[in-house]
Amino acid sequence: MEIISYVKTVAREGEQLADTAQRAGTEALVPTCPEWRVADLLRHTGSVHRWATGYVAQGPSERTPFPDAPELAGEELVAWFREGHATLVRTLSEAPADARCWTFLPTAPSSPLAFWARRQAHETTVHRMDAEAALGVAFGAVDPHLAQDGVDELLTGFHARPQSRVRTAEPRVMRVRATDTGAVWTVHLSQEPARTVRGDAYAEEADCTLTGEASWLYSALWNRRPLTGPGVTGDAELARLWADTAGI
Question: Which pTM does this prediction carry?
Fold first, then answer.
């Protein structure tokens, strides 16, 4: 995906998140994040947006402290979120393509601007789902190619890091297939961080296969809906392991 597509996603999803959170109310519980209320969701995502803005705008080469969110509530908190979101969109839109700054995933794009635009596109989309869960409505649509990209970032980026808790005592293989985009990932699980290979050519037989539209895989692998049902075949214990340990 091109940087401009990510930026448009950040803009659209952030607006939807704010609108949905406003409708739900800042005291509403967030079922997809059991310890959160909507206020926590807005504070977290608003702080992440400001954190990302700082990298793109100021160009630090090392990790910087995560900003604290103010103790606001109600309309004031929604307004604070909207302000930070608008600043992020503007910063991503106006930054030079060769901007340099710190990034943090092992499979990050070579362009830091592309990395932060991509990361915030998925950060905002997933948390938009959380706002919808708080309101009690079905998740809005996710473009299949965006969903595929988000699954790829999760599998090849986040869970390739030492911080990932998705581990198995013995080597196991989990295959992930997106029926609408044709994307396939083969995830090698062991006592080490997961090793994910795109595709399944010449790959060994999988112990568990997850099959479905990219948007279902996206929401399920990010633990926003149960990883169960006819799309899970083989050893369902691996799917349960993912649900229990894959939280970011």
Answer: 0.96
